Amino acid sequence: MTVDAGTQQERGAGRVWTVRLDPYGRPSTGTVRLSCSRPACPDQRFTDGAAAARKAAVAHVNLHLAHIRAGGGPRGEAWCACRAADCAWHTPDPAVGARGSTRPTAEPGTTRCGGPVALTVYADRAGRLWRIAEMCRTVRGRHR
Asked: Which of 32, 19, 96, 20 lies closest to 62, judged by CA?
């Protein structure tokens, strides 16, 4: 069987951008490092404390959001981004779905991906981690 180029569209996992704040150097200096999962984004260091670093992290997330929106927003052909993490974002057992293992068909308490993919921003309560992801409706509901 042959398939002509361009006649079949392959779905890929949703994209994920992660912005993180971590202490840098000696704790007594109070220096904070802002890092981004995108290779084009260099690490930044803030010596004036966590508040300035948080403000810069939010600005960095907004910069990525503006770039994604300018590029047409989330890709409609993408799968939910949790698939890139072996669905660990919404399965109760982190070992379930590990690469190479057989995924159970229907365990109680396991949420399946479902619904249209949209752009979602998740921030942890401590203000140290932000994740921008193309997620389905089901997984987005688990991160509210």
From this structure: 19
pLDDT tens digits for range 133-144: 888 887 777 666
Say how many Å lie between the first and final Cα of the chain, rounded: 45
Residue 110 CA to residue 90 CA, distance in Å, equals 7
Q: What are phi and psi of 39, to 5 degrees?
A: -60, -30
pTM for the full predicted model? 0.71
Cα separation, 97 vs 119, in Å, equals: 24
Q: Which of 11, 36, 17, 9 is CA-nearest to residue 134?
A: 17
**Number of residues assigned to the chain:** 144
pLDDT (tens digit per residue) in 88-105? 665 554 444 444 444 444
H or E element at residue 53: helix 50-70
Report the amino acid identity of residue 32.
V
